[in-house]
Amino acid sequence: MNKLKLDDFTKYKFLSKLRYSPEGSKLGFIVHEMDVEGNKYLSDIHIYDTQNETFTKLTSSKTVKSFIFKDENTLLFPDSRDSKDKSRQKKGEDLTCFYEISLNGGESNKVFDIPLNVTDIEILDEDTFIITATYDYNKPKLEKSSDEEKDYVVLDEIPFWSNGEGFTNKKRNRLYTYNLKEKKLNPITDVFTNVYSYKLNKDKSKVIIITNSFIDKMQIKEDLHIYDIKENDLKKISHEDNFSYSYADFLEDKIVFAGTDTQDYGINENGKIYIMDNEENVRLMSPTDFDYSLGNSVGSDCRYDSSALAKVDGNYLYFITTEYGNSYLNRMDTSGNIEKLTTEKGSVDEFDVVDGQIMFVGFRGLKLQELYRLKNGKEDQLTYFNKWVIKEKKLSTPERLTFETNQGITIEGWVMKPVDYEEGKKYPAILDIHGGPKTVYGNIFFHEMQYWANEGYAVFFCNPKGSDGRGNEFADIRGKYGTIDYDDIMKFTDIVIEKYPFIDEDRIGVTGGSYGGFMTNWIIGHTNRFKAAVSQRSIANWISKFGTTDIGYFFVEDQQAANPWSDVDRLWFHSPMKYANRVQTPTLFIHSEEDYRCWIAEGYQMFTSLKYNGVESRLCLFKGENHELSRSGKPKHRIRRLKEITEWFDKYLK
């Protein structure tokens, strides 16, 4: 067995976009891998024949990131291969080209293009598609402008930019139908409406749509619409004026949706599941005590482009829930009876189901992502893309450790011993804090933690108050950031040192990203017990975050229970920068230039504050990266990021 190396993550395979063929005889999915030399990700379609139980790599262009089944043996996917098409796109022309490939063999061929930047597509009939595409309200005006006028940006709404997308002012994800024969686009939603999701009913006569419409300021509320395709009629059917929808689909002759009015627990409130009869009568479908978030929030740095929430199949709604440090697949009938379909600990990242046949991508034990079949409650692993990691590399198994807070709440955490651990030897340790705060850590594979364990560190992490998986009360820390969550993390640190005496308490470091970066900044201003810190994509000042980030104006007001005019003192009290003159801990700041979620100004402010007060500090800024640097950043940047962090800890802890 060999030690896990820093850059071994560049050899991992990542799975996403599971999709069954219409009759379920085939399953398509995307396999992503890294090209370090090209500093990019490569993606291709793989097919699993569910009848013959065989796998085929269908494409080899390395650029295919999504697809749909045209029929049982034909796929349709967007790509850019023709030099003329690439040239048009490079000049800024809106264009998406679609290719067709047979599962029976042969090359893929371009079949049509659409003069828009398509974000999603479904087939209505042989000649008609329903699509979402980016619409830029200002682009027609800019195209008529001179080149000089394109060198500035006009902003007249909030949010005006979005992490990973750049400036989004007056840009919307709009719904259209497109007729191939006539080459005609029919806009369904208006120019100020964002379409978050759409689903077709069984006979493809209607579409259920979740939208958010705004001018000047986006509110955290959505609407439900039904679009009658034949009548070309769009009708609003929202059951409440102020409601946040996370999912909607057709279930038999009814509509099922999930969401919350956010009145009790704010924007992080767990949604309920409802069913609507005749587009009017609404009743609660999920049990009244259903208190889990929909989707998977179990953290790992070994995913790429992975997402899932729910799907209707037959008389059931299938959905993922996060519960403590795990995520599970469930199904619910129209009476609200819930059956947990997976029971093994770990993470269900995404799934698809047709006629009760279930496939999912998940983490199990210390295995990285693989494809699993679920049948009669039994999981069968079908792929072994990442088998070599378990077989060839030394790994540390996280050991679960719980404790009870002063309020009588049990907090869950884990400790990873250094690989090649020797009894009687003292080791340095790293406390790792998750983002969110409404996400969770579990015991699944996390590359950076495994690497540090291979480098002779103990690693420990927990899910303090504010984390996901425990219901609304547990997750609710509005107006309390840096108080009860800080107490939980510090008590966990005390328990870890007590239970694992091989940890040298004079050589402990702390790190975290996003909310974990906020907490790292907060910790170093409130205690000197950590000998080194690495603050990643952090928050320093809630006042500046309110006015500069893509979610700031609504996230800060909701989570800090104040805005700069209602209670600026409260915002400053909860800002780590307020306590920066107390800091003595050597601190490395990792930030991305295009991180609009926790904007670079946050990193600059905290770094400047420490330097001003004479604290050893360093800021490593990654150009061309955003909030997702550690998870989907360019391979070379991810290598450099982990190298910077590890060398900082080595300098002060070893």
Can you walk through the features of this model?
It is a single chain. The protein starts with 13 loop residues before the first strand and ends with a helix. The protein is 17% helix and 37% strand. By secondary structure, the protein is an alpha+beta fold. The protein has 13 helices and 39 strands. Strand 25 (316-323) and strand 26 form a beta hairpin. An 8-stranded mixed β-sheet has the order 32-33-35-34-36-37-38-39, with helices on both faces. Strands 23, 24, 25, 26 and 27 form a 5-stranded antiparallel β-sheet that branches. The chain has a 4-stranded antiparallel β-sheet with strand order 1-2-3-4, with no helix packed on it. The mean pLDDT is 96.
